[in-house]
Amino acid sequence: MKKMLPESELARDERFVRSKIEDRIFDPRGARIAARNTGPAKMATDRPAAAERSRSLMHGIFVGEVQALEGAGRTCFDFDDTEAPFQLKLDMARQCWDEARHCEISVKLGDHMGTEIGEYTESTFLFAAACNPDPVLRLCGVNRALEGLAIDVFSTMKEFGGESGDPVLEFCEDWMLADEVTHVKMGSDWLRRLTDKDPERRERALEFQRTVDSIFNLGGFRGDDEENVVQLARRFRELAGFTEEENDSLSALARESTEQAREMAEMATAMLDAQSN
Amino acid sequence: MSRVTITPDPFTLVPYDGAVIAALVEDVAAMVEFPPGVAIHVDVDEELFAPLTGHMSDVVDGLAELWISGANLEDTRAPRTFAPEQARLDFAVMLLRAKDRLSDEFASAPPDRELGRGERVAWDVYAVGRAERLGLTARRQRALYDFRLQHGFTDVADAAFDRCWAAPSMTFAGILELCKETGATERAPSKVPVDILRQK
Fold first, then answer.
1. Does B125 touch chain A (CB under 8 A)?
2. Which of A244, A255, B16, B191 could form a disulfide with B11 if both were Cys (CB 3.0 to 4.6 A apart)?
3. B83 touches chain A (CB under 8 A)
């Protein structure tokens, strides 16, 4: 079996459609919408298109779970025992079991909301972070950055379930959230153990984590404010072992990303206006 | 000259064809038996994309004024691509609601931007149920989730949904009564205007 599988070779049946990054970047509507007030992006029942936003995010969570399963599975297989200790692989195998369960839960939540598998496109950013050839960098990108993001996403959806009085969504998200806290702790523990005598490698791993974090803050997707779709879940992040300093730093990064997105939207709108005049 | 007009004309941000949309609206209007003498104007907001969906149906000075987000017409699997079957269902729902507005049963209904969220979704479900019985493909579970978000995840709300979905006829007074029954009337008003997506 092939080691280090690229994202282009992920196995999918005909229901799945891969999104293309260029579709998003070159979509002329993006700049227009960024310049408009479409209301707070935070999930709530009184927000426009609340149900459709919920369905779309839930499908994004589902494909994210599929890729998290694939990523953890690859980590079990891609490295020999000198690169990644057997105990680390056992942790990844346990994570595979969790992610597989999350896939099933997410499919059922999709049914609950009235969607089908493959109804929305799939972006494979998440798996791309799980392709790093250094197991420590991979764990930092996946188990600390992406599983950290999963904490934020599940906490946001759990809150939406509570606000809308949806017990199914609230309970499911709460249970998945508990697993994600464990996954982040695994990442933090292995980062510490594998880089105990190699501070330079640790710094490279943390830098990779920051890069992955920045990608997922893109366009203000995550942050501390109502204008962000996903809220930073500080309390659960603390339980997972992130320090207050790390949470503050992520929050600052998120604000920076939101501001950059706003500036880019203003520039793009000005260009579009200039073209049409 | 067609009684259906579409704006914008032409579309500049998405490759949608106004003539195709107008023909589809004409076809759906015939299917739902929309009064032939009433002109229909459809305003598509082509800037909006998925998941920013929404639509509104009002009757102003005897004209059916329909507004729809471009996201409703877009294939969720292929950005900026027109999805005719999805559009057919949404236009059917919009025209059925506009037809309701022309009847005595809905004469007391305020414009869409003044409807409560519970009132609006109950009316939508009543329309989606009728569209399904006319042969269009509609997903019941999807409509149920929309309904539950505004009326609650309760047996009372689910029973009210069943009534809206299957009702051969309803009145706006009946919708108000149903909202009292599920508790939707007691819910806090929206913090943001319900037509915020329509505001540029």
1. no
2. B16
3. no
Closest-approach residue (CA) in chain B for A56: B51
Check CB contact under 8 Å for A49 and B53. yes
Q: Are A179 and A186 in contact (CB under 8 A)?
A: no
Residues B143-148 have a mean pLDDT of 98
Contact between chains at B76 and A120 (C-beta distance less than 8 A): yes
Mean pLDDT value across residues A22-27: 83
Say how far apart CA A269 and CA A114 lie, in whole Å.
35
Taking contacts as CB-CB distances below 8 angstroms, the residues of chain A near B125 are none
Q: What is the pLDDT of residues A151-187, one digit of tens each?
A: 999 999 999 999 999 999 999 999 999 999 999 999 9
Whether A17 sits inside 8 A of B197 (CB atoms) is no
pLDDT at B30 over 90: yes
Residue A254 near residue A224 (C-beta atoms within 8 A): yes
CA atoms within 13 A on the CB side of B19: 1
Q: Round to whole Å and give the CA distance between A218 and A263.
A: 13
Q: Are strands B55-60 and B63-69 parallel, antiparallel or unpaired?
A: antiparallel
pTM of the model: 0.94
Label residue A220 by pLDDT band (50, 70, 90). Answer: confident
What is the mean predicted confidence (pLDDT) over A235-257?
89
Looking at residue A226, its pLDDT comes to 83
Q: Does A23 touch chain B (CB under 8 A)?
A: yes
Give the residue from chain A lying closest to B74, CA to CA: A120
Contact between B139 and A114 using a beta-carbon 8 Å cutoff: yes
* Predicted ipTM of the assembly: 0.95
Question: Tokens for A242?
Answer: 């992130």
CB–CB contact A113 B142 (8 Å): yes
Cα(A137)–Cα(A85) distance, integer angstroms? 15
Give the tokens for residue A182: 């464990």
